[in-house]
Design goal:
homodimer; alpha/beta; twelve-stranded mixed sheet; Formate_THF_ligase (chains A, B); one-carbon metabolism (chains A, B); Formate--tetrahydrofolate ligase (chains A, B); P-loop_NTPase (chains A, B); ligase (chains A, B)
Chain lengths: 555, 555
């Protein structure tokens, strides 16, 4: 069986100028990066059409080590819509380089449902993440320099919120001390590094509607507290203009293509736990202005990425999904129902039945917003007819329908019926989009809405610290901001071991992190790792390139 | 008076495809990055012509705060050669982003002798430095991960040579401790960050002749010593392939243009103190294969960058400069002769006479290699006829000639006579290139040759540590490697306060740093800063971008 990179390397790549033309972009509206990638000039293309295309959100059950193939289904569905003659585009997140060197597994789809050039997209792509790393660390250096040069802002070195970032899996940088080496090398303090995608600048960039909005948001970022415990912002440090200059190209959406030459916009990659977990507002909006159908996805499961798409991204985008596709696999559902990873190739209706509760809760969570929900089962050869039948029956009780997708092996042809159903469903849909909470509702009310309606849980509990924070935040008006729940992706609850659909659980909020540039409060539950480590055998050990420039080992 | 960026922004940019065509590159031999930048595909263009063009090396007196304008003269001279109908190209280093945010002052020439797009080149350009940062830190993460995962290579955490890098001026990162936070976050140890241009990978990338040579060199990099004090290399860590993949595009030279549309290759940017300080071997070679005249430069003064060009780069390039231009200004020479910075606009023949000794030693250093040397005086309005005459008379005693260059204000037209003289000089030159030392000479012999013949000093003194190192290195064969002297750029001696041409001085070697990938030994004299800090008022405070995307404050 061919690997993903072998399939990608054998692909006939259409010149990006032709892909752009197909998408309705004129030559001067793109900036080529090589012959297979381009950036889209913002001012010109975003205001092309007066009516927006239809938006299809692909999300999933809670992820398991068995794999669900959400990106693969996203690409396959878009190719199926293209095959059916619909003017279609994809809007996806950019992969992070750190994990590429750590764990095998692509972020560009798989098999015959991939976006290309796969290696470039997974490596440096058009440099967006590197620009973010630069801007983030320029801000960190400006902050420490301000402390060093007489500390005019009276920054408390013990209360610095702005860490440094690298797009590397590097556990040794999680907790550091800096400024050592005597009086000429700064002021010693505790610090640490996050991975670049965890930077608030990533959330900011991907929520911004233009360059000036970006600058305005950057100014508001709170980087530290001073000795009077008052917030210190980027505006106070005076470097918002410089950071915006560093991000002037990163804000432009990137154009690539699928193996079937469907135009794909790949742009931005915020985490789905500590940020909104979806591609940029500008990317999705650009696609909606150009195409009649836009297929996009949200990170992790419907409870995390799906909820944030609806509650954080939709208000900024000014457009809700016209249909939601929840992806599941028979394997993953059986794992949710208690089957061991080693046994997933055997029929197990008992485990499947139990695991279906997870799919059920994620379907209900998405139906809650008033949009039609469809279920795509990403086919594996070991799936039995009895298993598929059980899923279909279960999903029918929720008023939804199941479609089998064999997009890994067949590309768009493997999602023909799913694509037909999506188009028909959108044509027939009539319910209004129903937001989960009022924008200005108190934080606790928002948290309860998420836990009860999305997770199927019972209650929310704030730590003493979190309670005190909400009181402190009230004086700055931060207590009314939208909530971004930083929760394990593996469970609907805040306990990664509780698979399936746990009931009557309480979600514990340990701490809030104010993200004033992004415009939300992150609610931390449990310990969320913002700097991954490398495994015992990192993927980097298997990656190589030969004298002809042929790359091996990259997935 | 217009600023550099204003002049650059007003420029009429020729599409990079036309610039490439003028340079003799076919459309499929370049990869566009936007419409004004491109990468050159290595395999095709490097072997175009059988005979190489003529190479002109631009170097200077020891730099002073008064400014010499070496890059400006390099660009102006190339434009002058183009104006005279010669097929000309430029080969320059890429600027580092860290200093751009720190101190005002471009690295892309100035006035009407600039390379464009100036803002892009000074910011992220085509991402080469970001790729180096990624590759460097991926290696660092792999090293710490190896220590963490049972330390199979028995790496001594107290003897790690491979620090981390960022392309940021950030003094707080010079000395750090990492791996804090308990058993799940690595093994605590002392560490630190250098600026990206100080990475050995930068030296390696810019000395490599192709992708496989790059991989071979990367394997040899010594990253640490084990508990038996034996060297641990990248080959031992097993990530050379992955690092090469991360640098697969960074190794390709970048094509841009001057304001007068002369094709310019800008590629690589190693420090001129701890590395060879000049653009990549591939960039210069590509230019020599395409053009009849190639103007290039070396970092800092002739003593540092010039010497390294001749002794480190020439053997890898397989080609010595056909002529050397030493740049000076009346102002800088007066400062070398003792005039205060505030008084440089006043005629001062006494100070000038004393300062000319610095020019004299730098001319002699370059003449030592058997190549014709010309002097370019970069004109300032305050320069008097008597001052110019004194320089001309002095230079004549060394068998060289002075040419006035007014390239800042006039562009190529301001270097008309310099260009004519360069062409004539090259036509008449007949002496052979004379290397400074034999490749396999002992380290001390090489050091003495540099100090006596290039710096005009008397002797070399090794610290006890340095002496012991040479003995230790002998067992690995490292003691015969070429020497890269890490010395202050401000003085011919190792004391930055000794301006002019000090005599009878001894250069003290504190320590050697083996750079096995680059293939040289760095000899540290005094304290060489490899991570700059930000000043009290960083340039970042003045950089901004308006709603039309117009950048201000970038120089």
């Amino acid at each position: 069986m061919k690997t993903d990179i072998e399939i990608a390397q054998e692909a006939v790549v259409q010149p990006i100028s032709e892909v752009a033309e197909k998408a309705g972009l004129k030559a001067h509206e793109i900036e080529p990066y090589g012959y297979d990638k381009a950036k889209i000039n913002l001012d010109k293309s975003v205001n092309r059409k007066s009516d927006l295309g239809k938006l299809i959100l692909v999300t999933s059950i809670n992820p398991t080590p068995a794999g669900e193939g959400k990106s693969t289904v996203t690409v396959g569905l878009a190719d199926a819509l293209s095959l059916a003659g619909q003017k279609t585009m994809i809007a996806l997140r950019e992969p992070s380089l750190g994990p590429v060197m750590g764990l095998k597994g692509g972020a560009t789809g798989g098999g015959y449902s991939q976006v290309i050039p796969m290696a470039d997209i997974n490596l440096h792509f058009t440099g967006d993440f590197h620009a973010l790393t630069s801007a983030h660390n320029t801000l960190a250096a400006a902050l420490d320099n301000s402390i060093y040069q007489g500390n005019p802002l009276k920054i408390d070195p013990r209360r610095v919120l702005w860490k440094r970032v690298l797009d590397i899996n590097d556990r040794a940088l999680r907790h550091t001390t800096i400024g050592l080496g005597g009086p000429t090398s700064g002021v010693p303090r505790e610090d640490g590094f996050d991975i670049t995608v965890a930077s608030e600048l990533m959330a900011v960039l991907t929520l911004s509607t233009d360059l000036q909005d970006l600058k305005k948001r950057i100014k508001k970022i709170v980087v530290a507290y001073n000795y009077d415990k008052e917030p210190v912002t980027v505006a106070d440090l005076g470097v918002a203009g410089a950071l915006t200059v560093l991000l002037k190209d990163a804000i432009k959406p990137n154009l690539v293509q699928t193996l079937a030459h469907t135009p794909a916009i790949i742009h931005g990659g915020p985490f789905a736990n500590i940020a909104q977990g979806t591609n940029s507002v500008l990317a999705t909006k650009t696609a909606l202005k150009l195409a009649d159908y836009v297929v996009t996805e949200a990170g992790f499961g419907a409870d995390l990425g799906g909820e944030k798409f609806m509650d954080i991204k939709v208000p900024k985008l000014g457009k809700a999904p016209d249909a939601v596709v929840v992806v599941a696999t028979v394997r993953a559902l059986k794992h949710h129902g208690g089957a061991a990873l080693a046994d997933l190739n055997q029929e197990d209706l008992t485990a499947l039945k139990a695991g279906l509760e997870n799919l059920g809760q994620n379907i209900k969570a998405m139906q809650r917003y008033g949009r039609p929900v469809l279920v795509a089962v990403n086919r594996f050869t070991a799936d039995t007819d009895a298993e598929i039948k059980m899923i279909e029956d279960f999903v029918a009780t929720l008023g939804a329908q199941v479609f089998l997708a064999d997009v890994w092996a067949q590309g768009g042809a493997g999602a023909k019926y799913l694509a037909q159903a999506v188009v028909e469903t959108i044509d027939q849909a009539d319910a209004d989009f129903t937001p989960l909470y009022q924008e200005d509702a108190p934080a606790l009310e928002k948290l309860q809405a998420i836990v009860e309606n999305i997770y199927g849980g019972a209650a929310v509990e704030l730590s003493a610290k979190a309670e005190k924070q909400l009181k402190d935040f009230a004086q700055y008006g931060w207590d009314k901001l939208p909530i971004v729940m930083a929760k394990t992706q593996y469970s609907l609850s805040d306990d990664p071991k509780k698979l399936g659909a746990p009931k009557d659980f309480t979600v514990h909020i340990r701490e809030f992190v104010p993200k004033l540039g992004a415009g939300f409060l992150v609610a931390l539950t449990g310990s969320i790792l913002t700097m991954p480590g490398l495994p015992k055998h990192p993927a980097a050990l298997d990656i190589d390139i030969d004298e002809n420039g042929q790359i091996t080992g990259l997935f």
